[in-house]
C-alpha cells in the first residue's frame, strides 16, 4: 500500500518517500448545500465530488436551477457549505480570499467611481504595500488588455454593459488570483463582444497560468474554452453527472474547431446529456 504523508506545504505530497507537487488546485469533496425554505430544507447539492487541476480550464453546464451558481459561490467562499469540504491547494477554504477572483454575469461596479478606481479597489487590498504608481500600472495593464485603454477615467455609470463587463474581467485579473471563477460572464453580451472577450480570457488565462472554472449555458462556448466540460445533474441533490475531455490543441481557432470531426461528437455528447 502506498504510504502517503502530507508535507508542511500542503500542496507537496510525499508518497513512498518520493516528493511531488499535487496537481490538484481545487478539491470539492462530498459537497452538500441545503437552503432552508418555508416548506422545509431544500437540498440543492449532495455528494458532489470534483477535482480541478492547476492551470486547467473547466466549464460547467447544467439545467437552470440545478445549483451551478450555488456551487461557484461556495468555492468563492461567499456562500456557506452545509456539508463536505472545498480545498484550494489542500487548504480548506474559510471564506473569500484573493486566491480566488470572481466574475459574475453582471459586474456590480461602484457607479460613481471611474473605471480605473473600480479596478484599484481590489488591487489596493491585495497589494497594500505596493506604490500607488505600481498599483495603477497593474490596473491599466489589464484594462488595456480588455480594450479599455481610452476609458480609464470614465465613470462606471457612463459605460455600456459590454464595457462594464470588461471592467469586471480586468478587476478579477488585476488581483492576480490562482483561481478564476466565472458565472456566465458573457451571457448578456452580443456575440461579437462575447467572442472578443472569450479570446481575451483565454489569452490572459494562458499567460498567467491560472485555473479557470466557468459556468455557461452555451454548449459551443463550453467546448471552445475548456479542457474539460463538467455536466451537473438536475436538482434536487444535484451532483456531477458526467465529464467530457476536450482534446483540441491550443491555441484554438473557432474555424478549425468547427471543421474538426470531434466537434460534433462533443456537441452531441453534451446535448444528449442535457436532453435526458
Ligand atoms: N438563497 C437561497 N435560498 C433558497 N433557495 C435558493 C437560494 N439561492 C438559490 N436557491 C435555490 O437553489 C437552486 C439552485 O440555484 P442556483 O442559482 O445555484 O442555480 P443555477 O444552476 O445557477 O441556475 P441558473 O442556470 O438559472 O443560473 C434553485 O432552486 C434556487 O431557487
Ligand atoms: Mg446561476
TrEMBL record:
SUPFAM superfamilies: P-loop containing nucleoside triphosphate hydrolases
UniProt-listed Gene3D superfamilies: P-loop containing nucleotide triphosphate hydrolases
Keyword Cytoplasm attached: no
GO CC terms: plasma membrane
Keywords recorded for this protein, A-Z: ATP-binding, Cell membrane, Membrane, Nucleotide-binding, Transport
InterPro entries the UniProt entry points to: AAA+_ATPase, ABC_transporter-like_ATP-bd, ABC_transporter-like_CS, ABC_transporter_ATP-bind, NO3_transporter_ATP-bd-like, P-loop_NTPase
NCBIfam families: ntrCD
GO molecular function, one term: nitrate transmembrane transporter activity
Topology versus the membrane: Peripheral membrane protein
One Pfam family linked to the record: ABC_tran
Subcellular localization, as worded in the UniProt entry: Cell membrane
Protein name: Nitrate/nitrite transport system ATP-binding protein
Segments forming domain ABC transporter: 26-259
Main subcellular location: membrane
Amino acid at each position: 500500500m502506498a504510504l502517503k504523508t502530507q508535507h508542511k506545504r500542503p500542496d507537496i505530497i510525499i508518497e513512498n518517500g518520493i516528493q511531488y507537487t499535487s496537481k490538484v488546485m481545487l478539491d470539492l469533496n462530498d459537497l452538500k448545500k441545503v437552503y432552508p425554505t418555508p416548506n422545509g430544507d431544500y437540498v440543492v447539492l449532495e455528494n458532489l465530488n470534483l477535482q480541478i487541476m492547476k492551470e486547467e480550464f473547466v466549464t460547467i453546464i447544467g439545467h437552470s436551477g440545478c445549483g451551478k451558481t450555488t456551487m461557484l459561490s461556495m468555492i468563492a467562499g461567499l456562500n456557506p457549505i452545509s456539508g463536505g469540504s472545498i480545498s484550494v491547494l489542500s487548504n480548506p477554504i474559510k471564506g473569500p480570499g484573493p486566491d480566488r477572483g470572481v466574475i459574475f454575469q453582471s459586474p456590480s461596479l461602484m457607479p460613481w467611481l471611474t473605471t480605473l478606481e473600480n479596478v484599484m479597489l481590489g488591487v489596493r487590498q491585495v497589494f497594500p504595500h505596493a506604490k500607488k504608481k505600481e498599483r495603477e500600472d497593474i490596473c491599466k495593464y489589464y484594462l488595456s488588455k480588455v480594450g479599455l485603454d481610452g476609458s480609464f477615467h470614465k465613470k462606471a455609470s457612463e459605460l455600456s454593459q459590454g464595457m462594464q463587463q470588461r471592467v469586471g474581467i480586468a478587476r478579477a485579473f488585476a488581483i492576480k488570483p490562482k483561481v478564476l471563477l466565472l458565472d456566465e460572464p458573457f451571457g448578456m453580451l452580443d456575440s461579437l463582444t462575447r467572442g472578443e472577450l472569450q479570446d481575451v480570457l483565454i489569452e490572459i488565462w494562458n499567460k498567467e497560468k491560472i485555473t479557470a472554472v466557468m459556468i455557461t449555458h452555451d454548449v459551443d462556448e463550453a467546448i471552445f474554452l475548456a479542457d474539460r466540460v463538467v455536466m451537473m445533474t438536475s436538482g434536487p441533490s444535484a451532483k456531477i453527472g458526467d465529464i467530457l475531455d476536450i482534446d483540441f490543441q491550443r491555441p484554438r481557432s473557432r474555424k478549425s474547431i468547427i471543421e474538426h470531426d470531434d466537434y460534433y461528437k462533443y456537441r452531441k455528447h453534451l446535448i444528449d446529456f442535457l436532453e435526458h
